[in-house]
Amino acid sequence: MNILVCISHVPDTTSKINFKDNQTVFDTTGVQYILNPNDEFGLTRAIWFKEKQGAHVHVIHVGTSEADPTLRKCLAIGADKAFRIDTRAVDGTSVAGELATFVKNNPYDLIIAGRESIDYNGAMVPGMLAALLDIPFVPNCVGLEVNGNQAIAEREIDGGREKLKGNLPMVIGGQKGLVEESDLRIPNMRGIMQARQKPFELVPAQQITAATNDITFEKPLPKQDVKLVPAEDLDQLIELLHKEANVI
Amino acid sequence: MSVFVIAESENKTLKRNAGEVSSYAVALASKLGVNCTAISFNADNADVLGQFGVTQAINIKNAPLHFDANYYASAIVKHVQSLNATHIVLGSSADAKFLAPILAAKLGAAYVPNVVALPTNYDPLTVKHTAFTNKAFAFTQLNSECNIIGVGNNAYGNIESPVACSVENVEISNLVSNLEQVSIEKISGKATIADADVVVSGGRGLKGPENWHLVENLAEVLGAATACSKPVSDMGWRSHDEHVGQTGKPVSTNLYIAIGISGAIQHLAGVNASKIKVVINNDPEAPFFKAADYGVVGDAFEVVPVLTEKLKAFKAQR
Ligand SMILES: Cc1cc2nc3c(=O)[nH]c(=O)nc-3n(C[C@H](O)[C@H](O)[C@H](O)COP(=O)(O)OP(=O)(O)OC[C@H]3O[C@@H](n4cnc5c(N)ncnc54)[C@H](O)[C@@H]3O)c2cc1C
User: Fold this and answer.
1) In this model, does residue B6 exceed pLDDT 80?
2) Reported CATH class of domain B2-170
3) pLDDT exceeds cutoff 90 at A121
4) Rounded CA gap, A82 and A7, in Å?
5) First vs last Cα of chain A: how many Å apart?
6) pLDDT computed for residue B89 by the predictor
7) Over the stretch A202-223, which tens digit does the pLDDT of each residue have?
8) Any idea where the domains of chain A sit in the sequence?
9) CA-to-CA distance for B303 and B294, rounded, in angstroms?
10) What does the pLDDT look like over B145-167, one tens digit per residue?
C-alpha cells in the first residue's frame, strides 16, 4: 500500500497573531512553525500502516522552502520520501489543485491529510482533492482500518460517530483519535540521521489560480474586564446571566 | 444570478441551523436584488423555511436517509446549474464542512467557511470570517462565477420574516454514493456541542472522572451540552468527542461555562467565539478570567452544586 500524507506547516499554537503592512500580511516575526497537529495524527497512523502492514509512506507539502524543516521532521519520524511542490500556497483551491495534479501522475492507495490546518481552519484541501480525483473522502477521521482494497473509516459527527466503508483510493481528513496523543513520535537521533539520506524531491508547480484572496485582517476587540461575582452570592450571577447577558 | 441555500435535515425534519443559514441567504439575496431558493433532502417540513423569508424550496425526497456528502453534492450541482445560482450559502456543521469542499471542487466555485457577517462588499464579493482559530478575522475576496459562503454557527442568528414557501418535491436518479454507511452511533436526547445554546465544560481542576456529575447536573438544568479540556480527554476521564479547543471541537455557543479550566491559549482559541463566557476557578490568577465575561473565584466542588440548585429553582419559577 502506498500512502501519501499531506503536510501543512502552521504557526505554533501559542503564537501571538499579528499583522503588518497595514493589516494586510500575517507578521511571522517571532512565530515558530510546527507540523500541523491534525497532520501529525495522520502521519503517525500512516507509519503504523508502514510498520504493521508494510506500507510505503510519502509526505507532500505545497509551499516554499520555509517548510523544509517540517518535512525533514516527517522523514525523521518514519516517512520514506518527501515532496514539496514549489510555490507559495494561496488558498485551498490552489493547494488542492496542485495536489490533484501530482496524484494523477503518481497514484496512491490512500491519501491522508489533516482535518484542517490550525491557521486558516479552512478544512478545504482534503475534500477538494477527493472531489478533483473523484474518489471517496472521509473527514474528521478518528479511526481507520484498511483491508485489501477497502477501507473502513470512522468520522466524528455532531454528537457521535459514523463508520463508513469505501474502496481505495480514498482521501482521509485525520485528527486526534486516528492515533492517541501518546502514540505521537519525537524524532530521535537515529531518525534524524536517516532522514538526511532519504529522498526529498522538489516538484514544479502548475501555478493553479486561487479562487479566493485575503484582503485584510483584523484582531478581535480587546475584551472588557470580567465581572466577578462572590462565591457566596450566586443569585447575582443568575441575575446577570438572565437580565444583562440574556442567555438563560 | 440567484442565491441558493442548503438547509440541512435529520430524521426527515430540518435541523436547527437551517433557520440561521436561510436568514443569511435571504438577506444576501435581497442585497443583491435576486431570488433565493432553498434545497433540502428528505425534509417533510421544508415549508417552515418560509418563516425566515424563503419563498421557494426544492426538497429531494429520494436521497439516502443518512447524510451522504458525495451524493448530496452531485444533486446540488444539478440544481445550481438549472437555477443559475451564483451564491451558495450553507452552515458550519460537521456535515456542511464535509459537503462544501466537495461541492466547491465539483463546481469550480470559491468557498470561504466560518463567515461571521453579511458580505462587506458585493462586487467583488468580500466576506469577514474567523482565521487563526478565532485569534483574528480575515476579509477575503471570492473570485469565482459561483461563490460558496459557510456561515459560522450562531454568527448571524435567526431572523424571522414570515412568507409563504412553496415546496417542490423532486426525485432524482442516476446518482451514486462512493461510501457505504456501516454504522452510526449518536447520543440521543442530549444536546450536542455543535447545536447547543449552552455548553458546560470541565477541566483538570475537577480532579477525576468520578466528579463529572457536577458538570452533568449543571448541564442538565440548562439543557446544555457537556465538554472538556484536552488533558481531560487525553487522560480518558471523558471521551474524545467532548474535547474542545484549537485541536478539538470549536465552540461558538451563546453561553460557555468553564469549570476548573485554566484558560490556556489553545483552549481559549477554540471557545472564544462563544458569546458569553463564565469561569469558575479557585485561582484568581487563572488566565481564563481575562477572557471571561463573568467569573466566580471559588472551589468548584462548593460553587457548582449550589449554582445548580439555584438555577433549578430559577428555571422552575419560569
Ligand atoms: C499543540 C497543543 C494543542 C492543544 N490543544 C488544546 C485544545 O484543543 N484544548 C485544550 O483544552 N487544551 C489544548 N492544549 C492544552 C493546553 O495547553 C492546556 O494544557 C489545557 O487546556 C489545560 O487544561 P485544564 O485547563 O483542564 O488544566 P489545568 O491547566 O491544569 O487547569 C486546571 C484549572 O483548574 C483550577 N482548579 C483546580 N482545582 C479547582 C477547584 N477545586 N475548583 C475550581 N478550580 C480548580 C486550577 O486553578 C486551574 O486553573 C493544547 C496544547 C498543545 C501543546
Assistant:
1) yes
2) alpha beta
3) no
4) 10
5) 54
6) 98
7) 999 999 999 999 999 999 988 8
8) 2-219
9) 14
10) 999 999 999 999 999 999 999 99
How far apart are the C-alpha atoms of A162 and A173, rounded to whole Å? 14
Q: Tell me how many degrees the CA angle B194-B199-B202 measures, rounded to the nearest 5.
A: 120
Per-residue confidence (pLDDT) for residue A223, from 0 to 100: 84
What share of chain B in percent tops pLDDT 70?
Answer: 100
For residue B74, the number of C-alpha atoms closer than 13 Å in the C-beta half-sphere is 15
Is any Cβ of chain A less than 8 angstroms from the Cβ of B113?
yes
Give the number of A-B residue pairs with CB atoms closer than 8 Å: 262
Report the pLDDT averaged over residues B79-94: 95
Residue B176, Cβ density class (10 Å: 0-12 exposed, 13-18 middle, ≥19 buried): exposed
- Check if A14 has its Cβ closer than 6 Å to any atom of ligand 1: no
B272 lines ligand 1 (CB under 6 A): no
Grid coordinates standing for B170? 423532486
Residue B183 has pLDDT above 90, yes or no: yes
Listed in order, the ranges of chain B carrying CATH 3.40.50.620 are 2-170
Contact A164/B at CB under 8 A: yes
Chain A closest-CA separation from residue B164 CA (Å): 31
CB pair distance less than 8 Å for B255 and A247: yes
Do the Cβ atoms of B98 and A228 come within 8 Å? Answer: no
Asked if residue A11 has its Cβ within 6 Å of ligand 1, the reply is no
* Domain B198-317, CATH number (from 2.60.130.10, 3.40.50.1220, 3.40.50.2000, 1.20.1250.20): 3.40.50.1220
Give the Cα-Cα-Cα angle A209, A216, B85 (nearest 5 degrees).
Answer: 55
Which tens digit of pLDDT belongs to each residue from B118-135? 999 999 999 999 999 889
In chain B, ranges of CATH 3.40.50.1220 domains: 198-317
Phi-psi sector, A21: left (phi>0), alpha (psi -120 to 50), beta: left
3-state secondary structure of B294: strand
Instruction: For residue range B266-313, list pLDDT tens digits in order.
Output: 999 999 999 999 999 999 999 999 999 999 999 999 999 999 999 999
Residue B318 has a pLDDT of 83
Do A168 and A150 touch, CB atoms closer than 8 A?
A: yes
| ipTM computed for the complex | 0.95
Q: What pLDDT shows up at residue A168? A: 98
User: Does the domain made of A2-219 have the CATH classification 3.40.225.10?
Assistant: no
Is residue A182 helix, strand or coil? helix
**What does A186-234 look like in DSSP terms, one character per residue?**
PPPHHHHHHHHHS-EEEEE---PPPSEEEEEEEPPPPPPPPEE--TT-H
Buried residues in A169-187 as b, exposed as e (16+ CB within 10 A): bbbbbbbbbbbebeeeeeb
